[in-house]
Amino acid sequence: MRTPAIVIGSSLALAACGGPDTSGTFTTEDGETGEYRVDSDSGETTATVETSEGTATLRSGEDVPLDLPDGFSLYPGAKVVSNTVVSRGEGKGSMTIIETSDSIADLKSFYRKQAEDAGVDIGIEADINGGAMLGGESEEGQSFMLMINRDADVTSATLTVGQNLEN
């Protein structure tokens, strides 16, 4: 199912535009229609799209409450830079960007344990240009991807987790 990714991509691109409140409609490459709104005060983007599988919704911004799938939590002491939450029926997912002063190894270990405890089989692990990537999926429809980088004394990570968003 590509619709949540389309909603995320379209809405985040719109959010980056800034300026006054913006709202409108869009059509996906599959011909499905949606609506979006970007709040100029909070920077939050909201979007909905009607699909053949149901309504997909998105909220994205720094102050959007975390709604991680079962088994996952925010790294202790991390600052949320941005949070995107997508839902469709029983499925939900999130893409959370965080910052911490802790090491890449600490974040990788923390989220590896959470992923494995949630039944995710780690299928990809790489150390690339001083950063790290870890990802996998479970037989029950849980997907997980973690990308980590370090710049000076700040470690930033993008955690993407989904449950039941694929058909």
Structural commentary:
The chain is α+β, with helices and mostly antiparallel strands and about 170 residues long. The protein has 2 helices and 10 strands; from the N terminus they run H-E-E-E-E-E-E-H-E-E-E-E. It has a 10-stranded antiparallel beta sheet with strand order 1-2-3-4-5-6-10-9-8-7, with helices on both faces. A hairpin with a 2-residue loop joins strand 7 and strand 8. The longest helix is centred in the middle third of the chain and has 14 residues.
Q: Mean pLDDT, nearest integer?
A: 84
Unreliable residue stretches = 1-18
- Share of β-strand residues: over 45%
Shape, please? Answer: globular
Helix content: 10-25%
Structural class of the secondary elements? alpha+beta
SSE run: HEEEEEEHEEEE
Count of helix runs? 2
Task: Describe the main β-sheet briefly.
Answer: 10 strands, antiparallel
Strand order of the largest sheet: 1-2-3-4-5-6-10-9-8-7
For the terminal residues, how far apart are their CA atoms? Answer: 6 Å
Estimated radius of gyration: 16 Å
